[in-house]
Amino acid sequence: MFTGIIQHIGTVTALEERPWGRRLLVDAKGWAHAPRPGDSIAINGCCLTIAVDSGQGRLPFDVITETLNRTTLGDLAAGDGVNLEHALRADAMMDGHLVQGHIDGIGRIRAIQSDEADHRLRIAAPAELMEYITPKGSISINGVSLTVAGVHPAEATFEVALIPTTLDLTNLDALCVDDRVNLESDIVARTVVHWVRHYAVR
């Protein structure tokens, strides 16, 4: 379990092809959390396990083909910045919202509004995710906990407004129109919709 509060921006140093997928190496030097082999880390919102300790701040992750196909991790290249968050401790402060690290789908940036008063992203989401995305609700984009600023069901798009701190401490400031992003909808919204659809008395 995660919170969507990014702790560090790592840099992809290599992606090595393997029979089962890829070995992803991330430079995390300077990260105060000092993760260890076996720890769960969210990489752009996708929960992965540190495979072995390669030393010198490089974190290795084994990414299977299923994960590469269902997330944007297959789009990564050496030099890309990735959002990093360590799994939540049971006694830690909950600053964002409940994030599982299980990507629901891939969104695409449709428009970016950036000026002194407002930095806003409009994102196209898979149609099956739109019923979980509600105004003022929570959503995770590339692992970042955000509040939904607007929803446009007919277009299957939604908007988020980003504060300067979010732009400074995550990789969302590097996004361009047509880029793909990992989306995880709010587990509370998913649970309510599922229960109403399958179990509510009608």
List keywords for this structure.
202 residues; mainly beta; Elongation Factor Tu (Ef-tu), domain 3; 2 domains; six-stranded antiparallel beta sheet; six-stranded antiparallel β-barrel; 39% strand; globular
Sum this structure up briefly.
It contains three helices and twelve strands. It has 202 residues and is mainly beta. It folds into two domains: 8-86, Elongation Factor Tu (Ef-tu), domain 3 (Beta Barrel); 105-198, Elongation Factor Tu (Ef-tu), domain 3 (Beta Barrel).
**Which residues sit in consecutive blocks of at least 5 with pLDDT less than 50?**
none
General shape: globular
What is the number of helices? Answer: 3
SSE class? mainly beta
What is the succession of H and E elements?
EEEEEHEEEEEEHEH
What's the main sheet like?
6 strands, antiparallel
* Alpha-carbon Rg, integer: 17 Å
The overall average pLDDT, rounded, is 93
Overall tally of structural domains: 2
Helix content: 10-25%
Strand content: 35-45%
Proper CATH architecture of the largest domain: Beta Barrel
Strand sequence of the main sheet, in spatial order? 4-3-6-1-2-5
Report how far apart the termini are: 34 Å
E-strand count: 12
Explain what you see.
There is one protein chain. This protein is mainly β. The protein folds into 2 domains: 8-86, Elongation Factor Tu (Ef-tu), domain 3; 105-198, Elongation Factor Tu (Ef-tu), domain 3 (Beta Barrel). It is built from 3 helices and 12 strands. The chain has helices at 65-70, 164-169, 187-198, and strands spanning 8-18, 21-27, 40-43, 46-49, 58-64, 81-86, 105-114, 119-124, 138-141, 144-152, 157-161, 180-185. The strands form 2 sheets. Strands 4-3-6-1-2-5 form a 6-stranded antiparallel sheet. It has a 6-stranded antiparallel barrel with strand order 7-8-11-10-9-12. Strand 3 and strand 4 (46-49) form a beta hairpin. The longest helix is centred in the C-terminal third of the chain and has 12 residues, at 187-198.
